Please model this.
Amino acid sequence: MKKTYTPKTEDIKRKWYIVDAKGQILGRLAAKVASVLRGKHKAIFTPHLDTGDGVIVINASQIKVTGRKLRQKVYRRYSGYPGGQREVKLEDMLAKKPATVIRLAVERMLPINPLGRDMIKKLRVFSDDKHDLTGVKPQVLEVKK
Model:
């Protein structure tokens, strides 16, 4: 009889990776980062456990998008009050808050439950090439263009 392997908390070894977003395509970068945050690159991946690693994204302001997304993609939020729906185009969001664009793209690829909320806490996004997480000794993570 075979038994299902479930990793224990002491079996999960967390690493930190750094990704340079300069010239990268937004969706492909977000998919790779979400996969690492979730832990799908590890042999001990378990869907109901957080086995993933931490990711640092630098140069978020220099991300690319394909097609007409820069002018057509819209981020919407709603306060719950009448007339409380707000819309911001991707072009404006990249100019004001480039880190938020990448964070939202990755967050929407993670599970929408408490597990996903724990996973997104391991993501750090910086709009330029300076970051304050040198103590974790991040390894470079390659993302195909």
Q: What stands out?
A: The beta strands are 16-20, 54-58, 74-78, 85-89, 123-125, 139-140. The two ends are 44 Å apart (CA to CA).
